[in-house]
Design goal:
76 residues; 4 helices; DNA binding; Cro/C1-type_HTH; Lambda_DNA-bd_dom_sf; Helix-turn-helix
């Protein structure tokens, strides 16, 4: 659904701080920090909130299609 690397890349694409991402996702800053550092995996609803915030801001999340490129992000 969303990896920590995708979250960091999407924030960079949007020029968002972790604080801005947390606000847009309606989550606490510690949830974003811990996820991006690999400390913990948020629950389904929290991940869905992150994805929704990124997609509403114009980010497209790219899945790993087994072509050696891995997952990624791009702007709509």
């Amino acid at each position: 659904m969303l990896t920590a690397a995708q979250a960091r890349a999407a924030r960079a694409l949007l020029d968002w701080s972790q604080t801005q991402f947390a606000a847009a996702s309606h989550l606490g800053l510690s949830t974003i920090r811990d996820f991006e550092k690999g400390r913990r995996m948020p629950g389904h609803n929290n991940l869905a909130g992150m994805v929704r915030a990124l997609e509403q801001a114009g980010v497209i999340l790219l899945a790993d299609e087994g072509n050696g490129r891995g997952e990624g992000v791009r702007r709509r």
